[in-house]
Amino acid sequence: MPIVETVGVTRVFGTDGVVTALDDVSISVSGGEFVAIQGPSGCGKSTLLHLLGGLDMPTAGTVRFGGVDLAALTDNERTRLRRRSIGIVLPIVELVPTLTTWENVAISLLLDGRAMAEGRARATELLDAVRLSDRTHTVASRLSTGEAQRVAVARALYNEPELLLADEPTSFLDSVRSDEIVGLLRTLANDGRTIVMATHDARAAAFADRSIRLLDGHVVQDVC
Ligand SMILES: Nc1ncnc2c1ncn2[C@@H]1O[C@H](COP(=O)(O)OP(=O)(O)OP(=O)(O)O)[C@@H](O)[C@H]1O
Ligand SMILES: [Mg+2]
Predict the structure, then answer these.
(1) Is 76 in the pocket of ligand 1 (CB under 6 A)?
(2) Cβ(42) to ligand 1 under 6 A?
């Protein structure tokens, strides 16, 4: 069974139906796959990622996560599913500038009202995985853009999500930092993590196992 799939998904924005961001899109992502969603600006990459992550709902068609139709869930159930099963890295990383790196990684504990101390060991382990052990106690405002991006990946992995979604994780990075972050995603994929990454960057997409190309809201290519 796929981890996540869309069946005939359409997403129209605007009350007059002015922008069709996605038109009849059917894709399926299996466990352990590293998929790149490619295409020019405005083709619908972020819209598709948001639908896969249950952050947005389609105008028509079905999105299933682990076989469950997301439209059949209440808002609360969808939020719970997202927090438990889906890690999301957005293009602009928002860390709490006054908290340290490990505190930012373990931030979901704060949101759950649990003690931060509980999360220290796990955060330390994740910072090691993203090769930021030497920044564990650095306040986030002192991190470089590339480091902040890696903290965001560690944070997205905190709850051991079944699916990691990354929207343009390299957009503000030079090619060396960019290769570092996508190389990190590649390593996670080699360890069995399921990843869907939206990117306009062919160099980043080359790290993935499969590329789905969108144009004007349509899938025009889906190759391994
Ligand atoms: N909330 C929204 N309201 C209205 N239109 C939207 C909204 N979100 C996206 N769109 C429109 O839908 C289309 C697809 O947008 P989307 O953000 O998915 O593209 P993208 O491929 O991620 O682009 P980029 O590479 O610039 O990030 C665009 O025409 C965009 O203007
Ligand atoms: Mg986008």
Answers:
(1) no
(2) yes
Whether residue 109 is predicted with pLDDT greater than 80 in this model: the reply is: no
Q: Is the CB of 41 under 6 A from ligand 1?
A: yes
Ligand 1 centroid to Cα of residue 37, in Å, is 14
Q: Identify which has the larger pLDDT, 1 or 24.
A: 24
Distance 179 CA to ligand 1 centre (A): 25
The amino acid at residue 53 is G
Q: Is the per-residue pLDDT at 28 higher than 70?
A: yes
Residues 6+ apart with CB under 8 A from 5: 26, 27, 28, 29, 63, 64
Distance of CA 162 to the CA centre of its chain: 11
Ligand nearest to the CA of 44: 1
Q: What's the confidence (pLDDT) of residue 17?
A: 62
pLDDT confidence of 175, banded at 50, 70, 90? Answer: confident
Does the beta carbon of 155 sit less than 6 angstroms from any atom of ligand 1?
A: no
Q: Is 100 helix (H, G, I), strand (E, B) or coil?
A: strand
| Identity of the residue numbered 160 | E
Distance CA 90, CA 70 (A): 21
User: Which residue in 116, 86, 84 sits closest to 102, CA to CA?
Assistant: 116
Rg (CA), the chain: 17
For residue 118, give the CATH number of its domain.
3.40.50.300
For residue 18, give its domain range: 4-223
CB of residue 163 inside a 6 A radius of ligand 1: no
Number of domains in the chain: 1
